[in-house]
Amino acid sequence: MSHNHSHGNCNDESHDHDHGIPEGEGPRDILYARIDRPNVIALNSESGNGPEVIKPWDQRLDEAVFLESDADDQMIIRVPFTGSVKLRALLLKAGPADQTPAKVSLYSNVDHLDFSDIAGLKPTQEFNVAQGREVGEYHVMSAKFPSVTSITLFFPASQGADTTRVYYVGFLGQWSEKRTEPIVTVYESKPNLADHEKIQGLQSNFSAPPT
């Protein structure tokens, strides 16, 4: 079978194949199962706290569940992943009509971003959002999103309504496991080694002069 679990080093033609995603989850490189869904957060949302719009592929057109902005037409959605993602595209269904966001700004690997922070921060990439009942696919510049552990979406304004509404957020890309343990192990072993050498050196110097 074509299940290659070699830590993201898939150099063959099937590099974006299904990494154990269940049947019916849509495109082969859909990242629904790689989103840390319980920790998705929405700011300035009246109708939910975030995870509601991270839906399985077969529910992408469902309009019964959505996020709608509260105090004004701005909204932030922060989406963490369970590993490192090479992002290819944002999938977005919003609206209807003038409740569609005018644009969406994407921020890669920025933790705890809120409305006061966002004014001085340049987005990694942004898109104008088209009105429509289908899911829009917004292809990112992959070189700007090579190793994404979280993505923050900022909707700065609606297309005329008092509130912004979002039905579905999804992503396409390649997922690999976070490789933090080997890095931590190497980091810890180097200082220990240096400390041992230093102590031995000092001891030999002190014991050298005659009494």
From TrEMBL:
**Region listing for Disordered, in residue ranges:** 1-27
Locate the PITH domain: which residues?
Answer: 20-191
GO CC: one term? cytoplasm
Ranges of Basic and acidic residues compositional bias? 10-27
Tell me the protein family, please: Belongs to the PITHD1 family.
The protein here is known as: PITH domain-containing protein
Tell me what organism the protein belongs to.
Answer: Cerrena zonata
